[in-house]
Amino acid sequence: MKKFRVISALALTALIGLGLTMSFNTDTIKSSALGNVRKTIPNYTGRDPSVDPPYSFRFNPAANTPQSEYYGGSKVFYEELYRGQFLWYSKVKPTDATEADKDMTTMYENRLRVWGKNRSDWLVNKSYSLNLKTGQSEPGKQNYTPGGTTYMVSGPYAGKYLEWRYLGYAFDGSPVNNPYFPPDITPEKWEPWTKNWISEPWDQGLTAGTEYDQMNEKVQWFVDYFFPENPKFRRAWMPIEKDAADWAKKFTLQTDPTRSTGILTGFHVSNGNTYYATLLMKTPAQPNLRMVEYSVYDKETGKLVGKQTMNANDNTDMTETRKYYDQNGKETNKGIIEQGKTYVIKAKVKNMIVKGLDGKNTTYTPIRLNQKYSYDLTSHEMGQWDEEYGNSVLTTKPETTIAYGKTVDFSNQKMEGESEETWEYTVPPMVKKEIVFHSDIVEGFKKKRENTWAQDDVGRLRFFIQPEDIGTPDEALLIDAKGVPVEHVVPKEPYSLRFYVDKVLGEKSVGDPKDPSNPYASLQVVVSDKKTSKTITAVAKEVLTPKGKRVAIDVPNAITPQTSIIEATWQIPQKHRDNNQSMDPSNDGPHKHMWASDINISVSNFNIKPSSFILPAGKSSSNETLTFDFNILSENAENQDKDIDVVIRKDGRVIWRDTVSVPANRNYTMPMVTVPGIDVREGENVFTVEVNPQPRKWIEFLSNATDPNQVYKDNVATNSIMVHKNIPAQNCQILNNQNNWTTIHYIREWHGYREYTEHGSYCVTTSDRRWTEKINYYERYKITNVFFRSKLTKDQALRDGNNGDGWVDLLNGKAGEVKAGYGFEIKYVVKYQTNTYTDSPKPWRADCSGKTVDPTHGSYVDAPNTLQVTMPFKDTSGQPVRYDATTTSESGSWDNLTQNYEMPVRKAFNLKDTREIFINETAKDGEYPVRIDTYSYFYGSYDKKPTSKYLCDYVIVKIKVNGSDKDDVKTHLTQ
Fold first, then answer.
1. Residue 35: what pLDDT?
2. d(Cα 690, Cα 719) in Å, to the nearest integer?
3. Parallel, antiparallel, or unpaired: how do β-strands 667-669 and 653-662 relate?
4. Interatomic CA distance for residues 539 and 537, integer angstroms
5. Which contiguous run of DSSP H or E holds residue 792?
6. CB 71 within 8 A of CB 169
């Protein structure tokens, strides 16, 4: 056979269509074991095989075709008149087709990889192995318009209208090309009658012939069906029978044109390439029954609530029109019906007048309809029903035929085991939101081939359930034993609660003792006093009717709280949603409300004694006995004493615990708590006292608290003691604050000038003198001032009216006064002075003049910057407490230097850093000495003769303490 290149173009089928035609378009398959085996097993249920095509078929497993292996022997393919024109056999059931039935992805031929796919236009995905395109072509033409005719029910393209290459089979099992499938390459101009068509392509290896190609009637079919549909193929200069015979040799016929639209495939050659295309014959007329009206009425009022109509006069018009009406007969966007209400249903079915059809009356009996109903989620699933009653709808009056062009009415029903009655339906209580009413013509007419088009056999109306809704507002009352609404709670007193339920939507009453599906409005309530809780079902005592009304629901003696808090949480229970009384859960709650009286336990004025310790030099910790005192306040509405747990912690570790009986609503001063053996260490030692610690015995509440944790913030108080390390003594052993000496300086002084010659220069001395000078030198290192200030000295300065700052110099002989329990400030001034630089002769040199001094004085002296202060109190080992004062400023030159010292910065009583020294509030009256020593190994100037006498000074000043019994501000020290 001559080789040629097949290109998918100018056709409704692509190269995969060619391949499938070559493989499968044979009616029988040779088998050495079985002889001639048919590819399909037909089912002629109710039909005459000599006249009618089969109603359905299955692929024959004995044929061993790819389709029989893929589908097996049980998959049934049903006769389908697609869009009222094209008859083939589809995997889609004629009634109750599911999403899986309608999913053409599962048709074998549509799953094969597309040949020449890179040259195929409009494929949804050229890398995807599906014969699926994004638009459609007008049957018999090679054009393209967006949007297909097939609704995709599943998979990656669900919800879109696309076009499959194949939608069904001929009854011999051959795949039939979808006439709406777009061309693989869209031609600029399509004039098929001008193409060079190949004669008898089934003999050229291009395709396999069908049984219709062998029939004698084929030429007549071209006369009757091909030329009327394709008039430009008719060559007027040729006798029509001869013309038809010539075209019949060039196209293979895939379907019987007397029963459905004839589908032809032909091949033509252009520019050395072979192309093929599908052409259509005139569609033969088919008998059709149509449900032209389907109506639903309110049985109580007789008013129409929904109606579907189809054109009763034009069989080609497939438009379905649905309208819905409100109680006043006004048309609405959607149908609303009520749960539990009964509706009357009516329908009309017409034996349609079909152009070109020799119409007949129907013969199938009984003349019946099916009725089916689906609710909520099921109503959105294809072919799924919650209720279905086959052959249950009867004609209004007895009928044995539907005359051609006539209509019969349906308004009665007969359920199994029951007598005939009016066709009606009561909406069951399990329907929550929506319901589909559905009716269709029974399948018997189709099997008898008296109704070949099933797509207009259905009446279908979707109704939405009349919204019924109750809700509970965020409103509640707490009622005391006297029946008075209150906001505050007294423990151990009984309280009742009142809530409300509103009728938000609908006209149906809520509450019918005779109807379990209509219970009285109720609430699920959880009430708690933060210690215990209980759940209560509260039920209304009256019927709630209709929209805009409200009922109160009382819960008598709901709780007798043990605390000052009552919390209630309430919501509409599930049963009201289950019974469709509450269809909007957003207003069902839960809501929460709290009633409470302030109950607060707090601690304040937390003091620790002693407030500081001085450890011996070289020691960093010690076990000490501390005394704690603090105030506890228990505020509560019931004015009740409470046993309150108290703990004291150091570094998070409990060092003391007890339960204390605290009176209500007044400050209770805790008796002093003495705790021995507490490990204290150098630095700040932090202690906390907590009342009502976790797990809390008492639930506290503050109405003004924005943060739940804020309620317990004042349950804790913090204080600290300071532990300092003492320093070794560096006292002046011998007081020596001044050195004096005399030095004899040997001095030479000369003057001259420089003489210049041609060989250089030299000095010429004009005078030269030598002599000695005897000079008395001194150096002093002395504490010159000890400044003191306390509250007493500042008060005295104010009384003196001199606007003084309260500083007094203790070296003037007067003691510094301070009250016990208060602090004082102290500053020290030390001076170093010497004349070794100012009074000593100075050498100099200026070219040929100069002065020498031997020895030379005035060398720099670096004065010490430490000062030790010894206090009158002792450390824990009985040694005096010492401080190293620090230099805070210096002024003057090194030979006339003034140094200012202050006490080191320390933390005291958990206050900020301070240089103050605090006097114990229990200190006795009296004068106490404070000794100040300079550095004891200061040599001073090295200009003096060697000596073992270091410069060292010390002074002793006195601090006068006025005892605590004279303290006029007892609360000054609370640290």
1. 37
2. 12
3. unpaired
4. 7
5. helix 791-800
6. no
The stretches of 182-239 forming alpha helices (DSSP H) are: 218-221, 227-229
Q: What is the pLDDT of residues 888-945, one digit of tens each?
A: 999 999 999 999 999 888 776 555 688 888 887 778 888 999 999 998 888 888 888 8
Dist CA 774 CA 194 (whole Å):
146
Do 487 and 461 contact (CB within 8 A), yes or no?
Answer: no
pLDDT of residue 24: 27
Closest alpha carbon to 827 in 899, 924, 876: 899
Is residue 558 within 8 Å of residue 570, measured between CB atoms? no
In contact, 446 and 452? CB cutoff 8 Å:
yes
DSSP per-residue codes, 862-874:
----EEEEEEEEE
Q: Are 450 and 367 in contact (CB under 8 A)?
A: no
Q: Which helix (H) or strand (E) holds 483?
A: none
Asked which of 520-524, 550-554, 578-582, 767-771 is least confident by mean pLDDT, the reply is 578-582
Torsion of CA 673, 678, 683, 687, to 10 degrees: -40
Task: Identify the three-state secondary structure at position 705.
Answer: coil
In the structure encoding, which two tokens stand for residue 889, read together?
């400023």
List pLDDT tens digits, range 177-234.
888 888 776 666 778 888 899 999 998 888 888 888 888 899 999 999 999 889 989 9
Sign of CA dihedral 681, 685, 689, 695: negative
pLDDT tens digits for 371-382?
Answer: 999 999 999 988
- Give the DSSP per-residue string, 874-891: E-TTSPEEEEEEEEEEEE
Hey, what are 93's tokens?
């059931």
Bond prior to 516 in cis (omega within 30° of 0): no
Please give the helix or strand (H or E) that residue 308 lies within, else none.
Answer: strand 304-310
Q: What is the DSSP string of 76-142?
A: -EEEEEETTTEEEEESS-SSS--HHHH-GGGSGGGGSPPTTGGG-TTBS-TTS---EESEE--TTS-
Of 316, 315, 282, 285, whose CA–CA distance to 140 is shortest? Answer: 282
What's the rounded Cα separation, in Å, for the pair 33 and 36?
9
Angle at 137 between CA 133 and CA 142, to 5 degrees: 110
Tell me how far apart the alpha carbons of residues 44 and 54 are, in angstroms, rounded to a whole number: 4
Is 80 exceeded by the pLDDT of residue 970?
Answer: no
Range 121-124 contact pairs with CB under 8 angstroms and sequence separation of 24 or more: 121/182, 121/183, 121/184, 121/185, 121/186, 122/182, 124/157, 124/162
Whether pLDDT at 640 is above 50: yes
What percentage of the chain's residues is helix, strand, coil (to nearest 5)? 10, 45, 45
335 three-state secondary structure: strand
Contact 379, 284 (CB under 8 A): no
Output the CA torsion sign for 813, 814, 820, 826.
Answer: negative
Assign 136 a pLDDT band (cuts: 50, 70, 90).
Answer: confident
Q: How many CB atoms lie within 10 A of CB 577?
A: 17
Q: Within 13 Å and on the Cβ side, how many CA atoms surround 899? A: 22
Decide: helix, strand or coil at residue 615. Answer: strand
CA distance 65 to 39: 7
Q: Determine the Cα–Cα distance for residues 331 and 313; give it in Å rounded to an integer.
A: 25
Strand, coil or helix: 642: strand
H helix runs in 630-728, sequence order: none
User: How buried is 216 (Cβ within 10 angstroms: 0-12 exposed, 13-18 middle, 19+ buried)?
Assistant: exposed
**Tokens at residue 336, please?**
């609303």
Q: Give the DSSP H/E element, type plus range, for residue 495.
A: strand 495-505
CA of 303: how far to CAs of 178, 338, 340, 439, in Å? 45, 14, 17, 20
Backbone angles phi, psi at 67, to 5 degrees: -70, -40
Strands 600-609 and 522-528: unpaired
Please give the single-letter amino acid code of residue 169.
Y
pLDDT of 132: 85
Q: Which helix (H) or strand (E) holds 643?
A: strand 642-650
